[in-house]
Design goal:
This protein is an alpha/beta fold. The protein folds into two domains: 3-157 and 313-344, Medium-chain alcohol dehydrogenases, catalytic domain (Quinone Oxidoreductase, Chain A, domain 1, Alpha-Beta Complex); 159-289, Rossmann fold. It has ten helices and 17 strands. It has helices at 42-48, 98-101, 149-152, 158-168, 184-195, 210-216, 251-254, 277-282, 295-308, 322-330, and strands spanning 3-5, 20-22, 30-39, 65-72, 84-87, 90-92, 112-113, 132-136, 141-142, 176-180, 199-204, 220-223, 237-242, 257-265, 286-289, 314-317, 337-341. The strands form four sheets. Strands 3, 4, 5, 8, 9, 16 and 17 form a seven-stranded mixed sheet that branches. The protein has a six-stranded parallel sheet with strand order 12-11-10-13-14-15. Strands 1-2 form a two-stranded antiparallel ribbon. Helix 6 links the parallel strand 11 and strand 12. Helix 4 crosses helix 5 and helix 4 (158-168) packs across helix 9. The radius of gyration is 20 Å and the shape is globular. The chain binds NADP nicotinamide-adenine-dinucleotide phosphate (NAP) and zinc ion. NADP nicotinamide-adenine-dinucleotide phosphate binds next to helix 1 and helix 5. NADP nicotinamide-adenine-dinucleotide phosphate binds at residues 41-43, 46, 157, 161, 181-186, 204-205, 209, 243-246, 248, 266-268, 290-292, 329, 332.
Length: 347
Amino acid sequence: MPDVTAYAIDSPTGSFERPTVTRRDPGPTEIAFDIAYAGICHSDIHTARSEWGPARYPLVPGHEIAGVVTAVGSDVTRFAVGDRVGVGCFVDSCGDCDDCNAGQEQFCSQSIGTYNSIGRDGKPTVGGYSTAFVVEQDYALRIPDSLSLESAAPLLCAGITTYSPLKRYGAGPGKRVGVVGLGGLGHMAVQISAALGAETIVISRTMSKEADGRKLGASAYYATSDPASLKPLRNSLDLIICTVSDNLDLDPLLALLATDGVFVMVGLPPTPVPVNFGRLINRNRAIAGSNIGGIAETQEMLDFCAEHGLSAWVEVISGQEIDRAYDDVVASKVRYRYVIDAATLDA
Ligand code: NAP
Ligand code: ZN
């Protein structure tokens, strides 16, 4: 496979530069595809800035990847040239352990991250801020025809990360679901929760995104900056999906859970968050974490989004704008996901 262009960062405080990287030729069960768009997830930023521990530099992030197949290996059965495909947060696993057999490949001890990992070839994996990709067919997703590639790309992480716990904890008719933080993950959580039939409530820091929250499907919108306004919500939510990327005060949020309510943390702040266990004991409340989703569930989520007309609200940017976009995501200025147009990478 020819060399391809990528955007890479060299250090936690560096800026994105444009090197050439080599992708392997597709093996017998692999596909190659031209990347059309890659979303910028806040996890890319945590990783690139070594906020979760030292990253492997040079780092090419990107795990919300959508494109079109250009070549298939001799034994590929699931895809053909011209198919629209996506890749999410991992590109390989053993395929044979309990987690893989349960469709939870993300927990396989041999799972390989789309970037910041070491691939089976012993080389660092190179993510989606690039022009082409090669992946085993079993780790690629089919993007339904009704979804545009730019608005489908963020579903590969933001979509599955919110769909999976919403399904697992029974979001649906008769349930009240709170979504904390209206960013990339949050705006997908609101759409999916509402489409599942749950009464969906946004809890943001301010009221500034209320109109968007309601357009996305929320029936109510609250701001943590005005704690008194949260009073009517106390003891009322069956499920909270928290997407906050930074340290936060959990206690006022746990107080919103009804008896047996579950607070699911999908945001991954770089530092530990204190928990007042009295709040949990008081009403049999629970705290849980949730990590992306397996391949079959990711395909189910894509099909669900297509069926219900859901997709990410995106702002398309060029490769040259990645540094600025990172700062804007951290400042919560993005509405609601930046996606890099891979056609700009060679410009
Ligand atoms: P994002 O677009 O930046 O959204 C995060 C939202 O959190 C912001 O829009 C903001 O919402 C709120 N927020 C930010 N700083 C805050 C603060 N200091 N206090 C309170 N609220 C704050 O990020 P994202 O891409 O959705 O990712 C969110 C988090 O999920 C990140 O930590 C990311 O690494 C993690 N993540 C986890 C998984 C997983 O598998 N569990 C997968 C993907 C991402 P408001 O402006 O509405 O308050
Ligand atoms: Zn992500």
